[in-house]
Amino acid sequence: MGMRSLVALRRIIWNAVSHFNDDDGWAMASYLAISALMALFPFLIFATTLASFLGAQAFSDTAVHLVFDTWPEQIAEPIAREVVNVLTIQRGDLLTYGVALAAFFASNGIEALRTSLNRAYRVTETRSIWFRRTQSLGFVLIATIGFVLISILLVFAPLIARFLETQLEWVRPYMGTITIWRFIIASTVIVMGLVAVHIWLPDGKRPLLDIVPGIIFTLIGWLIGSSVFAAYLNNFSSYVSTYAGLASIMIAVVFLYIVSMIFILGGELNASIRRYLDTRDKEPG
Fold this sequence. Notes:
The chain is an all-alpha fold. The protein has helices at 3-22, 25-54, 59-68, 73-87, 97-120, 129-167, 181-200, 208-235, 239-243, 247-282.
């Protein structure tokens, strides 16, 4: 990497971090973390009810895997256990007030993502509240249907694997990797979700190439941040002694805060790169 490239990289990073700090990025990360936690249970309740309505009875287990397989085990295990307890409660028909409210509260999480990305991309929202709310509910519904379809796939995956083993001998040595399918599918869901929210949620239009750096940064940052936080929990944490029964929820909030910071910085990075390229193109010769 030449000197000019190093200078450009420094300018881009400095601009992203400075704008994150000047535009209340720390507070926005808190807002996004709490909104995500508040939206998580309503989304899973709405999704489980819709899945049951469509006949996907095994959805609750597969949905929990899809959401939590990419979280550190120390964080995911206690939260996932409580989620399963909530999802196994019998509910009425799909079109009840409770499920409608669950969909609304889940869409609040989408609105938090929108607000964070609008600030990161330095744009002012010009679309009507009706459009934004309809779009947010559409995101919730599409995500739910996607989760249902994936849960059906995961239910049938072992059956397909066993059939392949009996019919195709050369496949057998590779069946040991079947256990990573859930993680691969969950990771794919995250990537598709990141692409969708960066393209459609913030105001304005951005080509796919413009959002790729921030998505890569978010994925790498998620991996590093979750690994470091998990190591901290294993070796230095005093959350259990400090917060007692609230420890798991406090750990989840801190983890979501870390992920939210990384997510917002991904948007800031995209905006900084675009700003640098526009400025460079305007410079003479």
